[in-house]
Amino acid sequence: MRYKPGIISFVSFGKIAICTLLAACFAFPQSNGGSITGKVTDQDGAAVSGISIQAKDTSTGTIYKATSSGSGDYKFDALAAGSYQVSLPTLVVGAPPQNVVVQVGQALHLDLRARDASLNTLGEDRSFFAARVAPHPTPKGPAPRTPEGRPDLSGTWWAPRIVAREEVSVLPWAAAVIREWAANNAKDIPSARCLPSGVALLHYFGLNKLVQTPTLLVNIGEADVASSRQVFLDGRGHPKDMDPTWRGHSVGKWEGDTLIVDTNGFNGKSWIADTIPAVFPYTDKLHLTTRLRRPDLGHLEMEVTFDDPGTFTKSWTMKTVSDLAEGEEVQEIICTENNQDVEHLVGK
What we know:
Number of helices: 2
Mean pLDDT: 82
Order of helices and strands: EEEEEEEEHEEHEEEEEEEE
Oligomer: single chain
Strand content: 25-35%
Largest sheet: 10 strands, mixed
Low-confidence stretches: 3-31
Number of domains: 2
Strand order of the largest sheet: 9-11-12-13-14-15-16-17-18-10
Helix content: under 10%
């Protein structure tokens, strides 16, 4: 189901998720190894079913996985004694890890509470966000090719689903900014004030329409301002005297069936993205390397490496997959028209 322009709250497009792990306590001992049991609930106390939980042995690196039941319960059995890091690895939840110690013959009880900061009202209902990250039905077949023999990336694509992200380590100033955003309920999110919401080639909300020619790749984004992006494929480089912009300057080249896009010249005024797990500030030192692939007819893969020595202690990579949106078309969304977010934003 598509949303209508002017109804979906733009601030809902980027609330910072806050996930808290609560109530670690010891229970009755078991004779056959240690265990971790508990229940996963949301911020309203409702059980969360079908969510992945992992327990990582911090000494060996071994990862154990479980899935919450219909009642939200989960269990890890027969664990060796030692320290474990328990987390909800689901990217749209973004829960911080909880470190616990398991003793021999001991059952550790750990309830997990996942908070997504959604108001669960019109435009911010959880079903909207769940549908956004769910896979869409896609056509089968090989990726189309251009007359030049290149994969044709053209098409209308659903918003990228984040499928993997490397660990991110930020400098102290950036960590302080992120804590401030969380304390303020993300009320200063750029998109709430009709400013660009991210730096990647594809927008993380709404549709993306790619139009590919031999010398240019254009993206028309649906749910963001300054929504058009262009990648020059004619062999040019970046301007020598680049005027920093919100979207930067992009040039691309083909390596086999992968389009490598180099982007820099950012002004540092927005966020990396206003959707978890990529809610970070950045500086004008930001440099992006984007790899675009169309492995088949129905999917578009994007791998972005973020390099900003002014913000991060090391570069990091995030991978997404977009589904082909057959029969869909980008809609006109004018952010400043009937924008009612600002007066309703709550923060310190």
